[in-house]
Amino acid sequence: MSDLTKISQFATAMLNAATLDDLLWSITNNIGEILGFDDCIIYLNVDGILIQKSAFGIKNPNERNLLNEIAIPIGKGIVGTVAQSKVAEIVPDISIDHRYIWDEFSGKSELTVPIIYEGNVLGIIDSESSQLNAYNESDKELLQTIANIAAPRIASEQYCTELQQTQLQLEQSNFELATSLRQLKENQETLVQSEKMASIGLLAAGVAHEINNPLAFSMSNMDFFKECSEKLINIYKLIITHPNISNEIKQQLALMNYTQLMQDIEEVVDETTTGLLRIKNIVSDLCGYARNEESVMTQFDVNNGIKVTTNILRGEINNNCHLQLDFGKLPSLYGNESKVHQVFMNIILNAIQASHKDGLITVKTFADDKYACIDITNNGLGIKNENLQDIFTPFYTTKPVGKGTGLGLFICYRIITEEHGGQIKVFSNEKQTTFRIKLPFIGHKQLNAISCA
Ligand SMILES: Nc1ncnc2c1ncn2[C@@H]1O[C@H](COP(=O)(O)OP(=O)(O)OP(=O)(O)O)[C@@H](O)[C@H]1O
Ligand SMILES: [Mg+2]
Hints:
By secondary structure, the protein is of the alpha+beta class. The protein has 11 helices and 13 strands. The chain folds into 3 domains: 3-165, Beta-Lactamase, CATH 3.30.450.40; 196-291; 298-452, Heat Shock Protein 90.
């Protein structure tokens, strides 16, 4: 086969190689098969170190498997010298060349050519033979021609690989940036929500405090007024039945509809007292949370807390819907047990009130890396998207007057986030609503630090 035919075969094989790896293995393989050399290795220059990448012969007993890969710095050994000088060399007898680096695959003579592209050494093609003086000038010329044909292809494949790696890194950075941005937005929203809640809480507690005094005297006046109206009724009964009262006065009294008047006063007094009692309950709820009384911190078991709460609500649940409990394994937590129970109570009560007849409420507990999670789900009508941001605001209620005060979730939010360093989130669509409570697994001291902050 003429040299031209050999070169043409090399060039065709190189064109067909799809990757840098394919290209290097195809070159070494063809050096063995087309040129008939015993052995051949391609080194690539990686930051000044020549690293073996593909081989034919003794170094490559199996498919694409290099035995005992070695790395040679540029300037060291025969291979390193050729990379430095950029001039191909024939070494007829390596045993008398002091530069030669010996290993278990050493031959007797060697041919080494540089792979150069735009003046830079991309690598080396190196062949060793078990015969002394095995290579001549025409072998050197042929191998150098092959190295020159391979050089632009190797350079372009290396460039493609670098480009792909840069693209991958860019994609990874983009992904990390998007994740950070999302987390930042979430944190910002949580912060804004917490700030909003804290100011609303302060405002509501202040208003409640101010209402307390006029409420107290209104209630005591109402009691007094009730007593007075009862006395007036008795006086009236006495007058109307007294034998010395003239018929004319009795007629006058009847004309004034005095009996009806007294009944109306009694009803008004009762209704007003009920209204004042409701205001009293709201005010005491708000004041209680503002003052943070009963802050008894103990260890408690979340699953047990849910059992206790659902037992208390058993009657309500049985009359309205079904309950399914799915408890995961959780360590005991540290906090104000009765307040956490109150949170479970408020949220499960809301779930009962939002359920259809025969609806299903599920309470599922599980642990993630930092929190005990409690999902309370009901399959009622759900909360409209535009209302989700309002449900934790005090006095927001969609329940009829007298049924809900709109304080339940506001109080839950404060207990979970401010007093226990946890989180409370809601997920809702037109079919179901889930409240997710997350309570942290943290030690006593840290928790105290949070509640005192
Ligand atoms: N599981 C739920 N499904 C649908 N809507 C809900 C659910 N939980 C809460 N809501 C909505 O959030 C509003 C606020 O709830 P929140 O518990 O704060 O007050 P409330 O239940 O109306 O009154 P109360 O102060 O008596 O608890 C409710 O009125 C209701 O519109
Ligand atoms: Mg409620």
